[in-house]
Fold this protein.
Amino acid sequence: MNVLVCVKRVPAPGARISITADGQAVDTAYLAFTTSPHEECAVEAAVQLVEQHGGESTVLTLGPAEADEQLRYAASIGVNKAVLLPIDEVDWDPQRTSAAITAAIRDLESANGPFDLVLFGNESADSGNFQVGVRVAHALARPMVNGIKGIEVEGGTIRARRESDAGVEVYLVPTPCVLGVKEGINLPRYPTLKGRLASKKVDVAQVSPVGEPGGQQMVTLLQAAEQVSQTVMLGNGPEAAPAVVDLLEELGLLK
Amino acid sequence: MSVLVVVEHDRGALSPATLEALAAARTVAGEGGVHALTLGAAADGMAGELAGHGASVVHQVHHDLLSDYGPEAWGEAVAQAVRTLAPEAVVACGTDRGTEVMAQAAARLDLPMVANCTEIGAGAEPWTIVRLRWGGSLLEQCTLQASTKLLTVAHHAFEAAEAPGAGTVSSLVVDLDPALGRTIVVDRVERAAGVTLATAPLVVGGGRGVGSAEAFAPLEELAGVLGGVVGCSRAVTNNGWRNHTDQVGQTGTRIAPDLYMACGISGAIQHWVGAMASKKILAINTDPEANMVTKADYAVIGDLHKVIPAITEEIRRRRGA
Ligand SMILES: Cc1cc2nc3c(=O)[nH]c(=O)nc-3n(C[C@H](O)[C@H](O)[C@H](O)COP(=O)(O)OP(=O)(O)OC[C@H]3O[C@@H](n4cnc5c(N)ncnc54)[C@H](O)[C@@H]3O)c2cc1C
Ligand SMILES: Nc1ncnc2c1ncn2[C@@H]1O[C@H](COP(=O)(O)O)[C@@H](O)[C@H]1O
């Protein structure tokens, strides 16, 4: 089974997210970078599927040259191949990103044969457009279900599970197909030292991205209104317990 | 201007977020009015309620492939409705299904789609829109240039309100390729009844400060005596101490209890965004400078391993008295 997984490099902010003076990007001067959490799980799913069914896994990203770090991280936990679509901008709009990823998949498939499964995250952590995977799937004329928290391969079909308010929904999707994964589908493994060393030697293929700008264009980032509250100190250590229970009583929670 | 609202429902049960989408559509629509689109015969019964929330026309689509939810069949039906009705804008709710269906329709119509809008500046081309990024921790102002504007609205950004509309029922015919049946729900497992993390009136949250899976026992006990549930941070799920179903935050569950007791949680923005809808927050932390402490309504500074059992004991003492 050949699996492709598409990931995005995003900053990992802590207590708050700062914006650069020109409003065009998250101020990453003091930040580390990571892969969007849903996509970390998609990478783990790809590795597990290949472990179970054989074949090969590939990770792909469209991003700055530094996104090499996220590709090698995926390789360090077991992904076989890596592809970088380098861009100069901080980010591309979702239509343009989808067009570039679609074109790259077509190229990869004409060289190496089809991917049985293409995995995306449910949404990217930073821009959260909820659409790149759906657009790519449609362009490739493949079925797509988003929000997946369970994948089982049954011959030429994937049994995919997704959570809803009411419980779990089951989809039976024929391969080749595209799925968007949510965090919680698995617990991603940590890289081993051996994995880390091997990932340094992985050859990262570069493909020039092609795509026209789409109809949605960012003007500026804005801070969300912050809730300010004056914290009431109830005390220190276990001696604060009576004050906490008074509060529970006051809030009507001590029935 | 006429605005089409894609009605979200599950086999005839209306999703409340749809009423927010109708409210958003009313802020944009002019003469052309707000039109509602219901997919599947099971949704016919909702026409009255949609009219009560401002729909001037309710377009009903009947098709075998719409008898249950399927993202591709729904997305294709919306795309065909847009071609037939030619609205200026289409609005859906920013839920899992709403965004998925709108993305499918956008792909099929080769149009942009703006997800999770909080402000919609309609009028001259291009429109100016404010939308959520980072699960709501950050906003983006963007422009939208398109022959038809496709949008989903963020939860809580527009308030659902009654606004009588004519609600004229009209039937709309779509032609769906049987192949689209490949992504229709085939089975369901209903959740057992009871409080969930999303609906619990009280959540006791534990973070890295708890230290291990076993050390969650006192948090379970406290939640138990109060009829609440235990939640956790991503540090906890990443360590394998608890299931991801307990995770609060951007990539976990959004909670809205009367009280959230956040114990040994630093309050990273991605955690905060899932907890901020709580009516009150009490932080228990050894670090008085922790973000969770400075943002909370109440705080206890101290070791959670000592504070939590003391709270449980005090509750038992008062109840026994
Ligand atoms: C894109 C993205 C999405 C994310 N999504 C989520 C999400 O959905 N949910 C989420 O939670 N995180 C999420 N994170 C991770 C987030 O950034 C933080 O890393 C995480 O929330 C930290 O968890 P924590 O507060 O438990 O741990 P820490 O940050 O390590 O904090 C531990 C806290 O415990 C306190 N403490 C230690 N010992 C004790 C003690 N004995 N008694 C009392 N207090 C003690 C410390 O003072 C400290 O404040 C996401 C990150 C990214 C990049
Ligand atoms: N620049 C990118 N490079 C690779 N994959 C991406 C990129 N942007 C988005 N994706 C993928 O598409 C999914 C949905 O992204 P979005 O539509 O931005 O929410 C993400 O979870 C990723 O799997």
Q: What stands out?
A: Residues A 6-8, 36, 38-39, 61-63, 94, 97, 120-121, 123-124, 127-133 surround adenosine monophosphate (ligand 2) (CB under 6 Å). Chain A has a mean pLDDT of 97.
